[in-house]
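Sample entry copied in:
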Amino acid sequence: MRIRNRVLTSAMVLSMAGVLAACGGNDGGDTNTADTNNTGGDNNAAADNDEGADMEENMNEEPADDEEPADNEGGNDEGGDEAAGDGEEVTLTYARGQDATGATDVLVDAFEEANPNITVEFREMPADTGQSHDQYVTEFSGGDDSIDVFDADVIWPAEFAQANYVLELDRFIERDDINMDDYFEGPVESGQFNGRTWAMPKFTDAGLLFYRSDIVDEAPQTWDELIEMSGELQGEGGTDFGYLMQANQYEGLVVNAIEFFGAYGAQVLDEEQNVTINSPEAVTALEKMMEIAQSDFVPGDILNFDEPATHTAFLEGQAVFARNWPYMQAMTEDEEVSQVQENVDFALLPEGDAGSAAGLGGWMTMINRNSQHPEEAWEFVKFMTGPEGQKITAIEGGSAPTLRDLYEDEEVQEAAPLFANDEFVNTLENAVPRPVSPIYPQISDIMQIELSRALAGEISAQEAIENMESNIESALAE
């Protein structure tokens, strides 16, 4: 099914254009929708925090049947049926990156109107997600309580949960009858660790295949078809390349690999944190990725490509196909930057032996364990991630909801026609999360190194997979 995407509202353009590297590690994004994930390398401070490690055993113990989980050390757990909005005057501090769309202001105003005793002060964090991550780690590891609620990259929850930085939310969810089945499965899984929920899904993102509709009648259904069509159509319509991807050694490379692994039925870790990467399916997936990266229809410097390099080349008309995040759709229709206006469609990423898999991006919302107002903080989180809050974020900010039913809302569809597109919604529904682990930054580093060596032709797919297995197992054992 071809997907036509001609018009987006100004809200959608503002939001999606700001997502210069959802899930990809680009430092240039100017809004918190940029899921930039510079959390590899040295950013595993939370997982290594001594205090968090000492408390991990107690944190992971199941409470007795007649006990409520003790997650409010230092907080004022009022509990009961009394709404937090009916109590004393409270001021919450909410932290997230810059929001150029203004959606955050609308969201806060709506919440304060419904909860007149709660004031929400906004604290703007660095645009670079990696810097934000490190700043949170520094403050939370020291027991700082100045932040009550904060937005978190989808790859942070397990790390922050094990380090004991955030509140477990299950008792709130159960008390207020929140049905987590109403949300897309991938974002929910990203917020869980050790069988508990630590983050609520706020908005989501997933990889897409963009293609030149003036050259291609129907998008390729499989990766083999993409390889064949990329080679045959390279040079058509003034193009230089058949396909573009993110193959630089950074977080975006991991996301691209996860999409290949998912398409061929492989995974890095199972739910019990066992390393499962060494499988025939993973080898096949990496071999397919290597075949593309080493082909003649990609740029010679494809190993240096990130999201900005991808969208720049595609918008200049250099490629037939490109894998990127939804933000690029708005850019294709922007006459100031695009040379391919009205000639771009998008579709699900191609299928492997196990189907199509898109890498999961997006943002969650969490509560600082040291918050002095956990009940009020939960009320704000519940509002932001519930139907009313997500509708505001979708309409005012162009961010894709994590609640399925909102895609049937006429106002949401009118605000962003992309949200009325069944194929786009299916992509979000089936997005594949990266490994959920408290040491994800280390896992990402390991994968980046071995994937880069394989794509460069220095080692075979089998060697890369075996190296990933042994190194990840060693990191988990530390």
